[in-house]
Each structure stands twice: as C-alpha cells, then as structure tokens.
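Figure-free illustration: sequence to structure, shown twice.
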Amino acid sequence: MTPEQPEDREGGVLPESTLARSARLLSLPLGVAARASVGAGKRLFGGDADQIDAQLKDAAAEQLFAVLGELKGGAMKFGQMLSMFEAFLPEDLAAPFRTRLRQLQDGAPPMPSSKAQAVLRAELGSDWRREFAEIDLRPAAAASIGQVHRGRLRDGTEVAIKIQYPGAEAAIASDLRQIKRLTAVMTPLTGGVDLASIAKEMAARVSDEVDYTLEAGAQSQVAEALAGHPRFVVPRVHQFTQRVLVSDWIDGRKLTTVIEDSEDVRRQAALDYVTFLFAGPKLAGILHGDPHPGNYLITPDGKLGVVDYGLFARLPDGLPKPMGQLIRNALDGDAEAMLAGLAAEGFIGKDVQASELLDYLAPFVEPASVEEFHFNREWSRGQFLRVHNAMQPGGVATRLNIPPLYTIIWRAWLGGIAVLSQLDAKANFASVLREYLPGFARA
C-alpha cells in the first residue's frame, strides 16, 4: 500500500485512492452547479422560488455531510471546522447545514474491528489483549483521524483507547491539497467563509496531529497541572505509541447539548469553556488549540472534561503579554498605542491607519468591554460580515499579518467565539481575561 493509497473502499477505513478521493471532493461544487441548473428550470416552469431554494440547500447539506463524513481524513476534519463556524452564516444558509454538520462533530462511520485490532497488534505487540481486562471492539466514537474504544485496565481503571486509522496522514494531506484547489468553487456552500486559510492552517499541522506521542506529552502535562481542579477534568495518559493512546475514560455529554438547557447551565458551561482556553497556558503552559465542541464534555457532576490534545501550542510563560495589552489599548480607544503595539508584534504588513484599525478590531474586543456580554448568532453574523468585507481587495484585513506565534491563538480565539455564539450564552467574560490574560487587567 503506497502513501498515495491509504486504504481501499472495501477496507472501510480511509476509503479510496487519492484520485478517487479527489473525485469525491470535486463532486461537491459540481453538485451545487447541477442543482442550480435544475432549480432554474423549475422556476422557469412556475415552481415556488422559496421552496426550490430550500430544497437545493437541503440537498447540498446532505451531500456535504455524506462526502466529508464517509471520506474521514482531511475531508472530515475540514467539515468539522465548518460545523463550528455555522453560527457565522446567514440563517438561510446555516439552517440546512446545522444538523448534518453537527453530526461531524460527534462521529463518523467506524472502521471494522479487524482493522482496529490490526493497529493494536502492530503498535502494542501480539499480546496486546493482556494490557486490558476488557475492551469493547465497537467504537464509542469515530472521528477524522481515528476512533475511540472503551476499555478497562487490569487494575480496574476505565480507559479510552484511541486508535488511529491506517493511512491517516497521507489521506489528510491529499484531501487538504484538493480542498485548497477547490476553495473558490466551494465557497457558495459556505457563504463566504475563508476556506483557503482554514485548509492552509490545517495542512501545516497534519504531521503533529497524527503523532500521538506529541499529543500524549501535552495531555499529560495539562492533566498533571490541573489535577484536582474544581471545574476541569483532564484524562491521565496510561500508555501511548505513535498511533495508539490510552487514557482515562471521561463520562459526559457533548458541550453542544447544553444549547437546549437553561440559561444558568449555558452560562456556566460557557464560562468554563472560555476559562479553560485562557487558563491552560497560565496553569499548564499549554494552549489547547482545537476549540471544536466535540472535545469538551459536561460531566455528571457539572465539570468540564477536555479531551483530544492533537492540536496544541506550548506557551511556558502563558499567553503573550502584548496580546492583553493590545486588547486593553483597543478598549481604551488608544488607537496609536494599539497600532504601535501591533507593529512591534509583526501584525502590520502594509500601511494601516490607526483609526481604521481600531474600527476593524473593536467588535472583536467588545465582549471584554462590559461586565456581561451575550454571545449569539445575530452578533456573530454581524462580525463575520464585517470581516468578510474587510478582506475584500484593499480592505484593512488584507494589510494585516498573523505572526506564527499567534496563528494557533487566533484559531482558538475565533473558534471559541463561534462555539460561544452557538451556545447563546451571557456571562462575565471580561473577568476571565482579567485573571488569565497577561497585560489585560488595569494596573
């Protein structure tokens, strides 16, 4: 099996060759074009325009979920990223996609147990079963890079056994190359979300995410630092190889399930979520770089369980102090100080006026400007429209850079805003920044 052919379709793991996977991805924009032609014909013969548009969008959502979910790999990771940002889209685009894309946050068609056992045998040895008193060969969860099985160690500890799909790295790299080529024609599916930047950033971190030894190191560091924390639960690592990771099992429900809960429950979940993103660097020297809600669980006792450390950044000194200072300057309306600080950190690429920069960034720091802020879809869509317009030729966003140090921080920040908007939560988020973001609190 060559690097360009991770698995065949019959194997049911990462289906099809690179050529076939590319053809499946290409079917997405082609499907949009074909349905648009059919819709135009129906309108021509007197069909109800609103009903036809709704049917077309629903069909596009169904196809997107089917293709990205079945292919797994980079295709599914890309779909999971889109599912986070549905809160930014206009409702007529977001509604058909919401349910189906949310399914990509929670699972995918699993690989056969024979394949899972083959990976365990290759990674842990022929007597791998001796490591466990019990293992359920039916996966508890199946995602883009691997799937999780529930098991029990010899000492009785309940564990999650994370097993990587064979050929995951090659499939992800192939998918993301193809997605980058198709971003222009796939944009109608996503209402203008910057697909190219998402694919580029994901591709740059492929090799890190498929090496479970790196993930195990980061997870162990956070678990040790936060052991006994009153609000967070991080699973301890028991064993790991490059493609298998065994850690504590955490019971809980997905973060997104609180959307239907009371305002108090949503407020606490949102505060815990934001606090963990900011507290991780200060308390453990690690930034959890994937704010995807599938990585966060509400435990039976109401704590926040955090899993999947495949994407992270080591920040031994915590979040950069200039970051907090820049946000404080923006809140104080000190445009010149903010411009100078951004230039010193390497954000300014071309000539930018202080006033236009302040106007562009003001909404991003708005949640920190008040003692209680309400994240919701209406607010997030307004900010998305502002960003989208600012990224047009000559816009202020096109004259800014994101330095390497801040790339993963920006992803976590933007993804966190998207998730909070889905939760429709109102809370004192500024207090979290004052406690955990260096340079933000007033002297």
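We now fold a second protein in the same way, so the two outputs can be compared directly.
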Amino acid sequence: MSTQSKWERLLSQLPRAGSLEFWRDLNPDLRISDHPFELTQLPAQPGPELLQDYRQRMLEEAYFQSEPSLSPHMLKSMRQAVESVKEAGLPAMFAFVYDVFYQGLTCFDAAFKAILGQGYRLVPNLAVYFIEPSEQGKGFAPHRDAEYVQAVDSQGMPTVLTVWITITEANPLNSCLYVLPKHRDPQYLDSIRDLSVTADAFAWEDVRALPTPPGVMSCWTQYLFHWGSRASGRASEPRITYAVYLQSGEVDPVTQQTVVIPAPLSFRERLSLICRSLRHYNYATFASWERSEELLAFLEQHTI
C-alpha cells in the first residue's frame, strides 16, 4: 500500500477511533474498563535479594532487565491488540486503549517500587513499536531519551524511568536493543546536566547487545545511550514491544496528566494519553502531510 493510501485509510478510520464501541468490536475478548491496572492475580514477584540486585544494576549501569513475567495468554492478547489496530489502519499506539497493557505494568510493580518508591506515576509518554521482519525494519537511532534534566536523585537513582516490555522476542535479526552501560560511558554524568550531550567518546567494544525473550521488562534512566538495531529479512517474526515513562511520586510531576498507579483510568482518559503521545512523538511527521489538519484536529479534540 502506498504512503498516500495509508494516510487516506487512517483519516477514514479516525471518526470511529473516538468511540469505545469501535474498540470493543475490534477485539471483543479484550477488556476496556475504568480500572485497567487491576489484576486478579499477580505473577510471582522478585524477592528482596533480586530487588536489591536491580537497584545495584541501576546505580552501576543505569539499566536492568527483569525475569520473564508476563503469561503466554497476556502476551497473546497484547500481540492480538497491536496487530488488529495496525490492520485497521490506525497507529499501533491505539492498542493502549486495552487494559492488558496496563495490567502488564502491574506485573512488575515490585521492581518499580524498588526503584521509584511507593506512589509512582505513569507519565503520558506512551509508545508501541512494531518492527517489520525485513531489511526496512529498524528501531530508533542511537540516542539518550533525555527529555528531563536532573531526573536522578542524589544517589544516582532515576526519578523518571523508561520502561520497555517485549511482547515478542527481540533479537539481532528482528531488532534488539543495544546499550552503552553507564560505567562505560564517559559522558553520562554530563548528560544529566545538559540534555544536548550525545555519546561520541566511548569504545565500541563496550556496547552491550540485549537480546530479550517475550514478557521481560527492561528499564533505564533518561541518560542511558541506547538504540534499536536494523532488522533482517531472515527474522522469523516482527519485534513488538511497548514502552512508557514512569516517575517517582516523591518529586513534582514532570508534565501534566500524570497518572498515579493504580488509579482509575477511563476510556476517555487513556484516549487522551494516546493522542497526547502521538502528538508529542509524531507531530513533525503528521504536520508534513497535506491533510494534516484533520488528523491534528482529532488529536487535539481527544486530548484532555
């Protein structure tokens, strides 16, 4: 399908995207409730020793990865949601209308509390990544997230945390993460004070590949240098992941519309989070299209 056709299809679907019934009809088996963080049963949570290890890894390397914690049923539901949204001609980000993505965060509650403390918040910067298993598929170019200055406490622990959860396996053929651990990054400390600091003084042998099975939570500070590699036509499946920012409840909200977890979150409120995130990360792309007014008007209309 041509780029023009994709845009036209997107516009044709937009009026329906604001309707709760549309999303329930698209995936009747997936829940959309006012309490999306609620789970009937939590998976086994990491014990004190592992939680302390997570904290130590965060201090030393500015990132860590959890054990696989999401059930096959949950992962299947997430993949179904993402693929059905894409098939409907809408950005994959709209999969966040479904509870299962918020329940996925709840599965890692103990790890988040170990890093951010009680009362941590969801920052309205959401993302869903669908990397095609082809030579054209690729993740983000090398970067630091670097949206907030001084987003670490006096010990070096993050007050804003990037969370990245694998729905399918991420490997070198379908685009896995590559990171430059903090202790191997001579410019890391400078980047905390100056968001324009990139990474151009490291040794390439210090870069670490992170092939990751499904159901794993990876997280890092605002200042970890990282990227997603290019995929290959030899990949057996797409790389599907989703990401959010969380922030400590002990500091002032970094932006408007943060959500205390596990607060209620209505369909309208999560649609607002989605539209806000689409504007935040894709505004330049959307604005370059000749019929951008219609799309931007929809995002504006549904952002609380």
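Summary for the second example: The beta strands are 63-65, 121-131, 160-166, 177-180, 208-210, 217-220, 225-228, 239-247, 259-260.
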